[in-house]
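A.,

Following up on our hallway conversation. Structure tokens first:
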């Protein structure tokens, strides 16, 4: 099940980032491909829409990007094929996403950090839903990336994904993911009942339950 969930390892950290208190959701997964191929899947404007979303903008350090229908921001680091950092601007708030790639034998390890400020615009959202609010979304994206890699770089079938999301299997995926992020939240020091309640609210949001 850990491979199906999209993230083999999850961790929640408290950290200071750019002078502000932040909650960091860390997801780690390994992929059966080379570091160069995984980098291309993550950064190529031709490949991103095959498993994630179309991207527009000036795709270089200091440039602005926009994921169509989702977040946008600034590319703050791009060191091929190992490190990509961006701001993640959505709904009037700003967080940060850092991605690191490293060889793992014949495979490649991906470490993704989503760094969310504890104060400001997203504070109420974070207090209500916890880290699963971003964690489930990234688990779904990482699963889509796994399907794309397994298919040799072919596009993911969007209609099939939509049908799967509405199915019992898709909802089970979301529940397993949400509960796993809730466990990671509790392990970080959050009250276990509070972590469970936040995870349940997030699962309900994603499944419509």
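Then the amino acids I'd put at each of the 209 positions:
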């Amino acid at each position: 099940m850990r491979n199906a969930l999209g993230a083999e390892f999850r961790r929640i950290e408290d950290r200071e980032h750019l002078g502000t208190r932040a909650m960091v959701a860390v997801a780690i997964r390994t992929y059966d491909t080379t570091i160069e191929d995984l980098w291309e899947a993550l950064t190529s404007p031709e490949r991103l829409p095959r498993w994630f979303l179309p991207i527009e903008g000036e795709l270089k350090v200091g440039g602005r990007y926009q994921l169509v229908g989702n977040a946008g921001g600034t590319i703050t680091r791009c060191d091929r094929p190992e490190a990509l950092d961006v701001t993640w601007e959505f709904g009037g708030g700003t967080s940060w996403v850092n991605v690191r790639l490293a060889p793992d034998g014949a495979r490649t390890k991906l470490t993704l950090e989503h760094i969310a400020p504890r104060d400001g615009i997203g504070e109420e959202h974070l207090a209500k839903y916890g880290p699963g609010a971003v964690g489930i979304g990234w688990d779904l994206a990482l699963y889509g990336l796994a399907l794309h890699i397994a298919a040799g770089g072919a596009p993911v079938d969007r209609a099939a994904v939509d049908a799967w999301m509405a199915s019992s299997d898709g909802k089970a995926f979301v529940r397993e993911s949400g509960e796993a992020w809730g466990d990671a939240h509790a392990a970080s020091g959050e009250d276990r009942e509070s972590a469970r309640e936040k995870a349940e609210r997030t699962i309900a949001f994603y499944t419509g339950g």
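Residues 168-187 form the longest helix (20 residues). Curious whether your intuition agrees with the design.

B.
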